[in-house]
Recover the amino acids of this structure.
């Protein structure tokens, strides 16, 4: 199941969404998260759902792929749906089965909350599915850049993120190696009482940490001899280019916000 | 020829320690020369490299890089002249992909983007890694990662390359790859090369060898002169190259060779020509 899980993964392809500027995508997703809260009736959610479906289409991914890839999250959403259905106690009773009473408001709430949750998960997944982690980092750095004026370490944060991303596979490999080495010495990490299993992790974590510090030191030296002296005066290899489609994407959001507001307050 | 690296009477202790890891060391490396530094573990080789790059400053003595005296004010200027490749292929790979890694140093030096793109391409072509632009480090072999590290150095166009045991974590094929690359670069770009190594076969390819022992320069000379020391080197904790060991054993068995062979080719030639004359 983990292989099929797509939460946080990048799927290379050549679609409009893939080619968008990461800054536009970040703003898009964060704004969408805020805008979705305007919707409070069936029409509002229907519009938001259509909007999300169109975004999925523009990313070259299929709805089925998203749903099957996000199965664990979908199960969570189904669970929230049931919780809302059974525990909201407002409005008229629609259905009564023994001690279970389902209220009108319960149906409304359950539907809206799970709908909102689903759309949010789809949209944020679209971001990570169509953007490499390094582009997300670049986009974040660029968006946070103005905050440098108030001493916010935008460059350092982005560099830390990119180094962390770079070293995740390396450290995973290393964990695997150490685990095998400990297992060859008779350590058992996958069975026995919880207490013993936790204890077996200690001899795994210690060499991992010691090595990670050693790596960090080597890396710092390597960076320094290649002339790294902080963000000041650095140029960027990866250029972010804002294009017409990025502006259009954000305009479409404004239209969505307008439509949702109209439905909520006037129609 | 001018000295690209020169250390004069260097004495050094690591901050907070009492042991002098370098004692009155003087070394110089000439322009366009390939110098190898050999010595047992802990003899101070890596420390020398760190002093050349201003990662530490000596207690006594001077370091001069390309005619600039190294001190806290000039350290960033001298670093522009030196490229360094280290032992662990993983721990010096900063970027998330091959091209990002090569670009990292260029970004630091504020090179304009268009120039960067071109320099990344050229450097990767030089090390024959231009087909791997978007490859992530964990999908590369150790030898390939070291070649990317070389490209990162080359993109910065230094005059001097320092290799601190850059081949020691590679398999024989990876090792040969990197050494061959250094040789080519030296020939084509006229680079000054300083290679720190345990591998005397690698050192045999240099123009000059410096032997370090317990923080001091023990001997300095051409590979022939150094290998003529024979068992003295073994006593210093070094492992002789195979052809020399072979010659030594043959000598003990009563088959003396006329010349001491440093490479396998020389050994083979020596062997069959010896037979011819008999
Ligand atoms: N950061 C440090 N702090 C304190 N002492 C150190 C530090 N790095 C090295 N040393 C000590 O300095 C001495 C020389 O170390 P150095 O790394 O220069 O040796 P080396 O010749 O490169 O050895 P190797 O062949 O193992 O790489 C050693 O005794 C070592 O323990
Ligand atoms: Mg060393």
């Amino acid at each position: 199941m983990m292989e099929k899980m797509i939460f946080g993964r990048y799927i290379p392809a050549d679609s409009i969404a893939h080619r968008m500027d990461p800054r536009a995508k970040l703003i898009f997703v964060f704004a969408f998260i805020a805008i979705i809260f305007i919707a409070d009736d069936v029409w509002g959610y229907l519009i938001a759902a259509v909007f999300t479906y169109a975004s999925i289409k523009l990313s070259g991914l299929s709805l089925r792929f998203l749903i099957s890839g996000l199965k664990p999250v979908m199960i969570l959403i189904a669970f929230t749906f049931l919780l809302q259905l059974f525990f909201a106690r407002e409005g008229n009773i629609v259905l009564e089965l023994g001690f279970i009473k389902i209220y009108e408001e319960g149906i409304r709430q359950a539907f809206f909350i799970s709908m909102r949750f689903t759309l949010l998960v789809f949209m944020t997944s679209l971001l990570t599915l169509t953007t490499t982690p390094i582009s997300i980092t670049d986009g974040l750095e660029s968006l946070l850049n103005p905050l440098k004026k108030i001493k916010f370490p935008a460059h350092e944060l982005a560099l830390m993120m990119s180094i962390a991303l770079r070293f995740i596979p390396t450290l995973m490999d290393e964990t695997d190696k150490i685990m095998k080495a400990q297992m060859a010495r008779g350590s058992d990490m996958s069975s026995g009482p919880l207490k013993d299993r936790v204890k077996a992790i200690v001899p795994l974590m210690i060499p991992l940490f010691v090595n990670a510090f050693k790596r960090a030191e080597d890396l710092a030296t390597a960076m320094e001899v290649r002339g790294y002296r902080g963000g000041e005066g650095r140029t960027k290899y990866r250029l972010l280019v804002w294009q017409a489609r990025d502006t259009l994407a954000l305009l479409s959001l404004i239209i969505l916000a307008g439509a949702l507001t109209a439905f909520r307050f006037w129609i | 020829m001018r000295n690209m690296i020169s250390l004069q009477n260097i004495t050094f202790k690591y901050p907070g320690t009492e042991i002098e890891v370098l004692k009155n060391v003087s070394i110089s490396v000439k322009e366009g020369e390939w110098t190898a530094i050999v010595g047992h573990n802990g003899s101070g080789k890596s420390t020398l490299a760190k002093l050349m790059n201003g990662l530490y400053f000596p207690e006594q003595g001077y370091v001069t890089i390309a005619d600039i005296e190294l001190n806290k004010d000039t350290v960033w200027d001298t670093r522009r002249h030196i490229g360094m490749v280290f032992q662990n292929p993983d721990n010096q790979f900063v970027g998330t992909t091959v091209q990002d890694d090569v670009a990292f140093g260029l970004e630091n030096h504020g090179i304009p983007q268009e120039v960067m793109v071109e320099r990344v391409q050229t450097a990767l072509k030089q090390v024959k890694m231009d087909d791997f632009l978007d490859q992530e480090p964990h999908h590369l072999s150790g030898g390939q990662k070291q070649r990317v590290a070389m490209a990162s150095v080359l993109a910065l166009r230094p005059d001097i390359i320092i290799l601190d045991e850059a081949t020691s974590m590679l398999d024989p094929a990876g090792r040969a790859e990197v050494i061959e690359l250094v040789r080519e670069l030296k020939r084509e770009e006229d680079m000054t090369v300083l290679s720190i190594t345990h591998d005397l076969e690698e050192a045999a390819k240099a123009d000059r060898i410096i032997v370090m022992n317990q923080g001091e320069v023990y001997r300095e000379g051409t590979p022939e002169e150094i290998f003529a020391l024979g068992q003295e080197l073994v006593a210093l904790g070094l492992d002789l190259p195979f052809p020399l060991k072979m010659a030594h054993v043959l000598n003990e068995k009563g088959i003396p060779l006329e010349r001491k062979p440093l490479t396998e080719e020389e050994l083979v030639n020596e062997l069959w020509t010896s037979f011819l004359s008999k």
User: Anything to note?
Assistant: Chain B touches chain A at residues 50, 53, 55, 76, 79-80, 82-84, 86, 88, 90-97, 99-100, 103-113, 116-117, 120, 136-138, 152-153, 156 (CB under 8 Å). Chain B has a mean pLDDT of 90.
